Structure formats: structure tokens, C-alpha cells
């Protein structure tokens, strides 16, 4: 029997609580024990150890008993890992009551206690490939000693991020369901579990063991979780933080009718007590359970070597967001039961299984502020300013909040501790507040109010059209934020492709406020004074005064002299470390230098980036017409419409002169885009912008190469995968200049699909529809000679 647990038949309640006070009491015992045992642990280490014991126990209560964690799992894992490390190095400090010896939490009094027929274990956590290797080698060596000559086979499974459950079947009838609790005693959640469709009340077939304890994981499938959360948001309720807490919270409802409304599923991953059932391996057990109608995971595999285990880990790390459920790692088990028995258990975990954990995707941090971003078309979106946090391998400081309804739905207050998530390449997201940490900090928190005026230019914001929750700043011409975004867009790869005009350079040219510190306290006064920047004090601190560009119209008239004194705010670093202070520094010109007397030496030459910028601006003037059209930021006019317009008209003048009906008739344009183009050219400053660019030498006509044969007239061609000779844009251009249409998706109307390396679903679709597929060589032939030789037999 495990530590301090009441014997069979005794209500579990008498041995509660395990909460922080209980841990302190246990700590007392630990310290007394230390007087009698020699220990080389320093006082600092003992203090750290005691603090950790208390902290970890507090988190165990919050997570297991209240379903309301205060920190992310990864942060918790770090704490318990450190605790285990100290105990491993100083076993004299540890006691049987240490939180490292617990399996989960004490069962809640809200449910009747249930004694498991066999103990439910936790799993040993492994956080790196080398930890996995050590664990693997140890298991193999131990087996070799006990069962010489037997090579283990391994069952690799996904570690489902859900709630462990034990189901008891008697003669094939579900009689009880219980949470894991502390491993020995769980909570009776039978009524709630009976509402889950995947869990059979009667096992299929006739011959079942008299008593069978099935273990598994209850989870909320990812898709169902998203839909469920959306319905909560739509009805004005706060969404659930993550599928794991959602599953745990759903199972521990007092009212089974509530559980029944939650989309829950389950996969089995083991058995406890079983009378009359004698499978010889884990995978055989799964086959038997599946035959009886119990849900088993489709992702399980049998492997034979360390390399294969590693391969499985890598595969699912890549796929981790395309699965039925959330995972936090992989579980590796010795398959054979006899071998499992030989390896045995510790008091907490089996020695024949371990859990490899992937890099964390959720962490807690502080929500410092909510500010608004003004986009290229004036859309105002709130975003979270966060205390820097490392998640999924990158540092996160900002996260979009989409619109004011989302902020409300998430229920976050400025100043809250929040859980954030960054999954793979997906942009970081604020999941919600950590409510318990609000206690005692109420006066540091404030509600977010969406502004009535544009945060960048002060213009009163206009609501979106019907059904659109977004607000926009209508001051397109002189709102500095919109201007910055448009200038950055001009440089982007899909527009004029000016590499040196990236985000920072675009902002530096248009927004003297760039990355201004939040408040005056964060300004490095000394650096500010010696920088030579001309600054004025605004409401929130100093700001440099005049932008170099007040409109993108002047972009091609810029001279190196114009950008000489452009300062941007930068975090001051000393010895490579950030100081938390900000100061203005020159952006386009070589860094200012100070002489021995502290006098500023004026910078003398442009940076390499600046030289590149001016070279690229010259080259950009020669870009084809469609790229110039994209660069103008006309609503709805992206690369596809721009290409269609430029191949139909060949010059800016003709596009400007075309009427709406004519524009709408062009393949790839249509009425919405046509209206948007007309509207854009009806604005004076837009026309002046085009004129000024033309005067500066930007090409406003496509050179018609009379020698290019119109070999693809009327044909639709899709290019997929990567070609060797052509970039994506070049292949499109080659098709369009020969009169063809370069489409993005394959349909019955597609005449040819050109497949390069790593072509994926489009190639499959082409094969399915019987569209001719060409390789690169054949594509070149098609460009030169036309489609004659590939005419379909049925044409
Ligand atoms: N955020 C917090 O404050 C906090 C506090 C306590 C615990 N936790 C989290 O709870 C977990 C610790 O609890 P734990 O003891 O369940 O350890 P664990 O997560 O390391 O693994 C053990 C559990 O994994 C589950 N599991 C999922 N898929 C499985 C499969 N295919 N085969 C076998 N088992 C599978 C089982 O229920 C098993 O009990 C950790 O993820 C930890 O980060 C978080």
C-alpha cells in the first residue's frame, strides 16, 4: 500500500488535506530526520529544496484537485525535475512524503473514493534524446541480466494529453469508472463516464473476464475542442484553456448532464486487474480490448530498436498538430508482459515504460499591456504586450488578440498572469488568465477599453460594415501607422521585392516613434543625451520628431542625405545583455561615436544596408507592371488580379482609364476588385502617388516582347513543387506572357499541371482528374511550342 493512504474500506477523507499546510508539516519531519543523518547539502540547497517541495505540492493541488493550474505543464515539469535531481544527489533530504513520490493528487471530497484493484502508476519523464538513451540502455541491460538472450520489442504510443481513467467491467458490464487520484484511491466518476459515447456499457461478445480493470485516457478531440470553445465564445462565456483541462473539468462535473454535453473520447492504454484474461503482451491486450468494443489508438506502433523509437518521436513531433487529439509526448513501453514483470516498478512509476516529452508549447507570463496595431488598410487590432517568455523554442513578447470581442471572451485583464501558447509555426496566442493569481493583486489589474480614436493618428475610428467586428482608421493618407505598413508592403517579396526595405527600415522611414519604450522610466537618459537625436517629450516619453517620408509617393525620390539623421529606439545592450533601457540610435548611417571628452562625432557614411536600399530602389523601378500594381495597396488587388490586369492592359494609364464594367469582365478580376480599383483611382492623392512614381522613373508599362510567341493562348496551367530553372514567380510570368493563365489550384478546367520536386496534393489531384502532368523539361517545350503534342486523346 502506498504512503499514508487509509486501508481498504476506510474512507479516504480522514487523511486529507494534502494542501500546502500538509506539506509544511511533512517538511518538519524531513528536517528532523536531517539532524540524525549526516548530510553534505549546503544550507542554501536545503532552503531551495524546502521551497521547491512547497511550491510543487501547491501546483499539484491546483492541477489535480482544482483543474486550474497556476503554471504551464512545462514549467511544472522543470520544478519537479529539479526536485528529483536534488533528491538523487542528496537522498538524505527526501522522504516518502516528498511530492516526487506522489502519483497525481489527493482525490477530491466532492466524489466518493474508490480503491483501484491494482495501483495506477505515473510515468518516468524524459526530456531529451540523451535521457531517453540512458533509460533505454538501462532497461535493455537489466533485461539482458534477468532474461539473457531476449531482445525486447517496444510499443510506442502517443502520450495523450488528457485525464487518466480506470474502468471496471464485471462479466462484461461497466460497473465503475474512477480517476487516477493518488494512484491507489481515485474518485468515482461512473455517472459522468457513462455519458461518453466511445465507452461501451457492455463489452462485445460473451466470454469476458469476471473482473477487468481497463486503463485509458479521456480527452477532448482537438477539433471538437475548437468548435466547443467557439460556441462558448459566441454565447459570451470564457473559452476553456486547453483540451486537457477541458477533459478533466468535464469528467469532474457534479452533474452528469453537463458532462454529456462535452465532446469527449477515450483511448485505452493498459489494463490493471484481470481475472481469467492472460494476454502475453501489451499489443495483444489492445487487440483483445478492441475486439470487445473498447477504443484503441490508431497511432500505436511496434518497433525493435532505439533508432526506430527516435524515428517515431520525430515523425509525430512534425505531425503533432494534425492528430485527433493533443499530445505532449510519446510513451515507450516494453511490449512483452513477462519482460515487463521482470523490470517491475518503483513506488511511483513502472521501469518498463517511460514518457518522452516534446518541447513545451504553453507557458505562463504576465500580460503587461494591450495595445493596438493599425494595419495597411486601417484595420485596428488589439494585441497583447507580454513579459518575454520562451515557448516552442522561440521568445514571445507579443500576441494578437484579433478584436475587442476576443479580448472580452478571453476574460483577460491588463496585469493578469496569462497562459500563452505557440504551436509550431502558428502565431502565438493568449489562452486566458490564470485566475487564482489575481488574489491580492486586484488593484494592479485593469480592464481593457478599445479606443474610440486611432492610436496612431487620433482620427475617430469607423465601425466595419455589417457582420464585421473590426474598426478601421479612415485616415488612410496621413495616418502614420497605415503609411508604415504600406511602405513595408512595397518592399515585400510579392510586391516590388526590395530586400533592404524590410519591416525595420520601413518603420524607420515613416515612424519616428518606432519601438518607443513604454514609459519614461525605461529611457536611458545618458544614451539619449549623447545620441544627438532630436527628440521632443510626448505624453509617454520622448519621441523623435519628423518622419523622412510623409507619403509613399516620395519613396523613389529619397536621397542618401535624407536618411542621414533617422533614429530608431533600441534596447540598450551591455556586453551582449539587454539592460531593459531604451535609447535612440541611428538607423541608416554608421553608428555615432563619442570621443574621449564625451563629444559626439558625427557619423560619416551610410551603412551597407543603406547602400543596398538605394541600389534596390533603382532596380525596383524596372519591375514589371503587375508588381507596381501590387505595391499600390489597392484593396483586394493582390498578385493574381495584378497579373490579370497587366496582361490585359499592359499599362497603368489604360487601367486608370478603364471603366468598372470593362474591368469586371477580365478573367481573374470580377466585380468586387473592379469596384475597388475604380474607387482607388477616384482619390486624388492616389493619382498623385502614381504620377510621382512615374516621374521618378518607375516603369508604368509592360514591355511587350513581340518575339515571345503566344503559345499558351487560352490554356490554364498549374505549377506545383519546385522547379530548377524557374522560381514560382518566373514560371507564372512565363505562362502569362505567352497568353496562358497561371492558376493556383487544380480543377477540371486545368489543361496542364507542371510538377517539380516535392509536388504534393495538387499532383495527386491532377492524377485523379486525369489532367496531363509535365516535368520541367516538358514545361519548357510547352512554353516554346504550345500544347499540340499533349492534346488529350478525347479532345
Ligand atoms: N501545470 C501544473 O501546475 C501541473 C501540476 C501537476 C502536474 N502537472 C502535469 O501533469 C502531468 C503529471 O502527471 P502524471 O503523473 O500524469 O505524469 P505524466 O504526464 O508524466 O504521465 C503519466 C500519465 O500519462 C498518461 N498517458 C497518456 N497517454 C498514455 C499512453 N499512451 N500510455 C500510458 N499512459 C498514458 C497516463 O494517464 C499516465 O498516468 C505532467 O504533464 C505535469 O506537467 C502540471
Automatic annotation (TrEMBL):
Enzyme Commission no: 6.5.1.2
Catalytic site: 159 (n6-amp-lysine intermediate)
Record: residues binding Zn(2+): 454, 457, 473, 479
Binding site for NAD(+): 73-77, 122-123, 157, 180, 217, 333, 357
Top enzyme class: ligase
Reactions catalysed: NAD(+) + (deoxyribonucleotide)n-3'-hydroxyl + 5'-phospho-(deoxyribonucleotide)m = (deoxyribonucleotide)n+m + AMP + beta-nicotinamide D-nucleotide
Transmembrane segments: none
Boundaries of every BRCT domain copy: 707-786
Disordered: annotated span: 1-22
Keywords annotated in UniProt: DNA damage, DNA repair, DNA replication, Ligase, Magnesium, Manganese, Metal-binding, NAD, Zinc
Cofactor: Mg(2+); Mn(2+)
Top-level taxon: Bacteria
SMART domains in the cross-refs: BRCT, LIGANc
CDD domains: BRCT_DNA_ligase_like (cd17748), LIGANc (cd00114)
PROSITE patterns membership: BRCT, DNA_LIGASE_N1
Database matches in Pfam families: BRCT (PF00533), DNA_ligase_aden (PF01653), DNA_ligase_ZBD (PF03119), HHH_2 (PF12826), OB_DNA_ligase (PF03120)
GO annotation, cellular component aspect: cytosol
GO BP field: DNA repair; DNA replication
Protein function: DNA ligase that catalyzes the formation of phosphodiester linkages between 5'-phosphoryl and 3'-hydroxyl groups in double-stranded DNA using NAD as a coenzyme and as the energy source for the reaction. It is essential for DNA replication and repair of damaged DNA.
Family membership: Belongs to the NAD-dependent DNA ligase family. LigA subfamily.
HAMAP family: DNA_ligase_A
Protein name: DNA ligase
Source species of the chain: Nesterenkonia salmonea
Gene name linked to the record: ligA
Amino acid at each position: 500500500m502506498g504512503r499514508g493512504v487509509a486501508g481498504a474500506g476506510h474512507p479516504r477523507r480522514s487523511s486529507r488535506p494534502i494542501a500546502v499546510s500538509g506539506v509544511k508539516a511533512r517538511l518538519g519531519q524531513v528536517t528532523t530526520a536531517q539532524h540524525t543523518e549526516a548530510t553534505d547539502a549546503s544550507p542554501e540547497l536545503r532552503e531551495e529544496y524546502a521551497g521547491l517541495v512547497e511550491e510543487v505540492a501547491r501546483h499539484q493541488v491546483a492541477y489535480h484537485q482544482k483543474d486550474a493550474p497556476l503554471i504551464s505543464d512545462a514549467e511544472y515539469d522543470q520544478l519537479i525535475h529539479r526536485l528529483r535531481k536534488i533528491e538523487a544527489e542528496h537522498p538524505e533530504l527526501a522522504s516518502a512524503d516528498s511530492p516526487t513520490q506522489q502519483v497525481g493528487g489527493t482525490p477530491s471530497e466532492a466524489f466518493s473514493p474508490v480503491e483501484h484493484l491494482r495501483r495506477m502508476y505515473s510515468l518516468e519523464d524524459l526530456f531529451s534524446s540523451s535521457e531517453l538513451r540512458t533509460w533505454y540502455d538501462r532497461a535493455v541491460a537489466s533485461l539482458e541480466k534477468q532474461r539473457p538472450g531476449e531482445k525486447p520489442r517496444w510499443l510506442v504510443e502517443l502520450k495523450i494529453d488528457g485525464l487518466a481513467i480506470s474502468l471496471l467491467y464485471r462479466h462484461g458490464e461497466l460497473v465503475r469508472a474512477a480517476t487516477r487520484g493518488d494512484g491507489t484511491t481515485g474518485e468515482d466518476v461512473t455517472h459522468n463516464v457513462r455519458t461518453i459515447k466511445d465507452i461501451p456499457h457492455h463489452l462485445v461478445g460473451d466470454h469476458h473476464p469476471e473482473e477487468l480493470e481497463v486503463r485509458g485516457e479521456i480527452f477532448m478531440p482537438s477539433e471538437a475542442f475548437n468548435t466547443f470553445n467557439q460556441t462558448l465564445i459566441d454565447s459570451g462565456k470564457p473559452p476553456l484553456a486547453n483540451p486537457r483541462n477541458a477533459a478533466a473539468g468535464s469528467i469532474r462535473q457534479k452533474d452528469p448532464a453537463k458532462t454529456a454535453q462535452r465532446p469527449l473520447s477515450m483511448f485505452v492504454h493498459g489494463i490493471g486487474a484481470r481475472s481469467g484474461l492472460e494476454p502475453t503482451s501489451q499489443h495483444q491486450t489492445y487487440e483483445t480490448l478492441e475486439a470487445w468494443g473498447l477504443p484503441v489508438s490508431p497511432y500505436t506502433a511496434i518497433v525493435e530498436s532505439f533508432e526506430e523509437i527516435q524515428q517515431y518521436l520525430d515523425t509525430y513531433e512534425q505531425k503533432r498538430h494534425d492528430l485527433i487529439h493533443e499530445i505532449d509526448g510519446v510513451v515507450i513501453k516494453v511490449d512483452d508482459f513477462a519482460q515487463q514483470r521482470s523490470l517491475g516498478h518503483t513506488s511511483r512509476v513502472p521501469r518498463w515504460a517511460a514518457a518522452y516529452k516534446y518541447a513545451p508549447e504553453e507557458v505562463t507570463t504576465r500580460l503587461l499591456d494591450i495595445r493596438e496595431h493599425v494595419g495597411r488598410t486601417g484595420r485596428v487590432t488589439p494585441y497583447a504586450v507580454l513579459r518575454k517568455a520562451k515557448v516552442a523554442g522561440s521568445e514571445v513578447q507579443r500576441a494578437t488578440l484579433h478584436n475587442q470581442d476576443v479580448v472580452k471572451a478571453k476574460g483577460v485583464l491588463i496585469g493578469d498572469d496569462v497562459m500563452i501558447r505557440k504551436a509550431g509555426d502558428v502565431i502565438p496566442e493568449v489562452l486566458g488568465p490564470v485566475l487564482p493569481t489575481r488574489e491580492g493583486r486586484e488593484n494592479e489589474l485593469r480592464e481593457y477599453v478599445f479606443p474610440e480614436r486611432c492610436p496612431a493618428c487620433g482620427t475617430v475610428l469607423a465601425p466595419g460594415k455589417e457582420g464585421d467586428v473590426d474598426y478601421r482608421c479612415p485616415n488612410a493618407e496621413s495616418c502614420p501607422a497605415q503609411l508604415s505598413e504600406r511602405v513595408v508592403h512595397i518592399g515585400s517579396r510579392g510586391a516590388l521585392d526590395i530586400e533592404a526595405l524590410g519591416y525595420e527600415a520601413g518603420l524607420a522611414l515613416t515612424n519616428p516613434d518606432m519601438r518607443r519604450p513604454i514609459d519614461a522610466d525605461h529611457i536611458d537618459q545618458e544614451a539619449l543625451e549623447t545620441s544627438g537625436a532630436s527628440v521632443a517629450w510626448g505624453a509617454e516619453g520622448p519621441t523623435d520628431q519628423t518622419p523622412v517620408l510623409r507619403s509613399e509617393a516620395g519613396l523613389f525620390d529619397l536621397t542618401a542625405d535624407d536618411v542621414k539623421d533617422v533614429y530608431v529606439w533600441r534596447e540598450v545592450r551591455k556586453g551582449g545583455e539587454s539592460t531593459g533601457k531604451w535609447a535612440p540610435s541611428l538607423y541608416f548611417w554608421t553608428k555615432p561615436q563619442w570621443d574621449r571628452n564625451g563629444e559626439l562625432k558625427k557619423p560619416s557614411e551610410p551603412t551597407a544596408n543603406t547602400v543596398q536600399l538605394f541600389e534596390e530602389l533603382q532596380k525596383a523601378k524596372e519591375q514589371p507592371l503587375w508588381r507596381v500594381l501590387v505595391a499600390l495597396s489597392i484593396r483586394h488587388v493582390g498578385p493574381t488580379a495584378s497579373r490579370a490586369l497587366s496582361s490585359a492592359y499592359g499599362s497603368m494609364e489604360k487601367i486608370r482609364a478603364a471603366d468598372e464594367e470593362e474591368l469586371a469582365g477580365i478573367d481573374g478580376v470580377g466585380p468586387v476588385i473592379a469596384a475597388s480599383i475604380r474607387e482607388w483611382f477616384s482619390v486624388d492623392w492616389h493619382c498623385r502617388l502614381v504620377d510621382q512614381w512615374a516621374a521618378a522613373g518607375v516603369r508604368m508599362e509592360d514591355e511587350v516582347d513581340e518575339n515571345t510567341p503566344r503559345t499558351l493562348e487560352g490554356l490554364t496551367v498549374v505549377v506545383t513543387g519546385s522547379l530548377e530553372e524557374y522560381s514560382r514567380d518566373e514560371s507564372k510570368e512565363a505562362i502569362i506572357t505567352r497568353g496562358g493563365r497561371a492558376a493556383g489550384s487544380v480543377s477540371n478546367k486545368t489543361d496542364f499541371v507542371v510538377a517539380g520536386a516535392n509536388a504534393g496534393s495538387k499532383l495527386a489531384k491532377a492524377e485523379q482528374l486525369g489532367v496531363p502532368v509535365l516535368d520541367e523539361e516538358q514545361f519548357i517545350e510547352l512554353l516554346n511550342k504550345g500544347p499540340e503534342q499533349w492534346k488529350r486523346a478525347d479532345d
